[in-house]
Design a protein that fits this description.
Helix content: 25-40%
Shape: globular
Mean pLDDT: 91
CATH superfamily of the domain at 20-162 and 305-327: Bira Bifunctional Protein, Domain 2
Strand order of the largest sheet: 1-5-6-12-11-10-7-9-8
Number of helices: 13
Low-confidence stretches: none
CATH topology of the domain at 20-162 and 305-327: BirA Bifunctional Protein, domain 2
Order of helices and strands: HHEEHHEEHEEHEHHHHEHHEEEEH
Radius of gyration: 21 Å
CATH class of the domain at 20-162 and 305-327: Alpha Beta
Strand content: 15-25%
Number of strands: 12
Structural class: alpha+beta
């Protein structure tokens, strides 16, 4: 009898990285999703829903090779398919096809499951839910500040007060390191910066992957986080002249936000390769992991045949639940 139960238990256990959501937890998650959907609607966003799985090529156009390695890819006869690893690429496909003749700007919002093969940690699973927006066809600092304001407003509406925005720019490392990022060690450098890992930079140095000037700038970036003083310190970078325009733009965005709610981190890179400028993460007070993030991605739509500027963000529902306070 015990052997039979053991065998039955093996077949009924869940795969690693997913979970059942029952009773009160499910009710709470749906309440959070409804509040966020209402916030998106008030901001003028149109809801959008894309399929749970699509052709692999859709996401291959947008995601980095590192991100694609975490995708759940499978074959159905002659079709190469993937479970949705990134809502933004799916929305970009819709904008370039079904919404091609719609007037601009487009402001779209979604709530959907996302699937990524990675080690569960910090409230993050292999299947999780994301609520987000994509604003298509709008340039300028004003729209970026409006998107940041919307992200903070969404968090306040679910009871996460005094959330912190960590600002960076993908244009800064691109300007500083240029072709080095396209080489075999480029992803290692970005990962080292994003983790703020001095040992990883030491390893790159031992491998002869970076020249002395690039290593000096990379090590300096590890120290550049905080407030407005970061921009003055950035003048000491060897590649400051090349990165000046990106830094000036980032400072303009930073000064448009309350000083108590924003922080600069020039090491932040995010995982998806399509970001072209401003990138950000949002945190709850006292939490060591981000609740979500986003940024500007002005070249992604061109990969789908419609060259438009865009900016957006996504919030991870499972990470919001422990810090949300709904009446």
């Amino acid at each position: 009898m015990n052997d039979a139960r053991s065998i039955l238990g093996e077949h009924l256990s869940l795969p690693y990285g997913v979970k059942d959501v029952l009773g009160g937890e499910l009710v709470r998650r749906r309440r959070v999703e409804r509040v966020l959907e209402q916030c998106f609607e008030e901001a003028g966003c149109t809801p959008i829903q894309t399929p749970t799985f699509e052709h692999y090529e859709v996401f291959a156009r947008g995601a980095s090779p590192q991100a694609l390695r975490r995708a759940y890819r499978f074959s159905d006869g002659d079709e190469d398919l993937v479970l949705r690893p990134d809502p933004t690429s799916a929305v970009a496909r819709v904008v370039a096809t079904a919404l091609r003749d719609e007037p601009l700007p487009l402001r779209l919002a979604y709530v959907c499951p996302v699937f990524r093969r990675e080690e569960p940690h910090g409230g993050h699973f292999r299947e999780f839910h994301q609520a987000g927006i994509e604003w298509i066809g709008e340039r300028g600092t004003d729209v970026e500040v409006a998107v940041l304001d919307l992200a903070l407003r969404c968090l306040e509406r679910i009871g996460v007060s005094r959330a912190l925005v960590q600002l960076g720019s993908s244009a800064v490392p691109r300007a500083l390191f240029g072709p080095r990022l396209e080489g075999p060690h480029g992803q290692r450098l970005l990962a080292a910066l994003d983790r703020r890992s001095a040992p990883a930079l030491d390893e790159l140095e031992r491998d002869g992957a970076l020249d002395r000037a690039a290593l000096r700038d990379a090590r300096t970036l590890l120290e550049l986080s905080g407030g407005v003083e970061v921009f003055e310190a950035a003048r000491e970078l060897q590649g400051y002249a090349a990165a000046r325009a990106a830094l000036d733009h980032l400072e303009l965005v930073f000064r448009s936000l309350p000083a108590s709610r924003a922080r600069i981190d020039l090491c932040a890179t995010l995982a998806m390769e399509y970001y072209t400028g401003l990138i950000f993460r949002v945190y709850a007070p006292g939490q060591g992991f981000e609740l979500g993030g986003g940024g500007r991605y002005d070249r992604l739509l061109a990969r789908f045949g419609r060259d438009l500027p865009a900016v957006g963000f996504g919030l991870e529902i499972e990470r919001l639940l422990p810090v949300a306070h709904l009446p």
